[in-house]
Amino acid sequence: MGQFVVKTLGTERHKALIALLIEKREMAGFTQTELAEKLGAYQSFVARLESGQRRVDVVELVELSEILSFDPAALVQHLQSIG
Questions:
Q1: pLDDT band, very low/low/confident/very high, at 15 (cuts 50, 70, 90)
Q2: Which of 54, 78, 52, 53 lies closest to 65 in space, CA to CA?
Q3: Are the C-beta atoms of 16 and 79 separated by less than 8 Å?
Q4: What is the CA radius of gyration of the chain?
Q5: Which pLDDT score, from 0 to 100, does residue 30 have?
Q6: Are 45 and 30 contacting, i.e. CB atoms less than 8 angstroms apart?
Q7: How far apart (Å, rounded) are the C-alpha atoms in residues 60 and 5?
Q8: Could you say which DSSP state residue 78 is in?
Q9: What is the DSSP secondary-structure string of 3-66?
Q10: How far apart are CA 59 and CA 10, in angstroms?
Q11: Which residues of 33-52 are buried (b: 16+ CB within 10 A; e: fewer)?
């Protein structure tokens, strides 16, 4: 069976997601290094997310929302409105 792969890196929705995550991190007053420490990851992990080199999976989105105090469902709804 063929595998269904959607190319999302670089799409308008992906760019909007990155911009929102950066905005939420900055509003929370975290540097990339501080956010990485909260996630139990290296700063380069956050840098790759924020530069658009890496996708954000659902579990990571939920963890980011808990650390940065935002509603992941509202963020997803916003992304759905971007066509």
A1: very high
A2: 78
A3: yes
A4: 13
A5: 98
A6: no
A7: 20
A8: H
A9: PP----TTSHHHHHHHHHHHHHHHHTT--HHHHHHHHTS-HHHHHHHHTTSS---HHHHHHHHH
A10: 21
A11: eebbeeeeeeeebbeebbee
Q: pTM for the complete prediction? A: 0.87
**d(C-alpha 23, C-alpha 7), whole Å:** 24
Sign of CA dihedral 73, 65, 36, 38: negative
Q: How far apart are CA 77 and CA 21, in angstroms?
A: 14
Q: Which residue in the block uniquely carries the two structure tokens 């190319």? A: 7
CB-based contact 52:15 (threshold 8 Å): yes
Cβ distance 20 to 75 under 8 Å?
yes
Domain count of the fold of the chain: 1
> Could you tell me if residue 6 is inside a domain?
no
- The CATH number that applies at residue 36 is 1.10.260.40
Enclosing domain of residue 25? 12-80
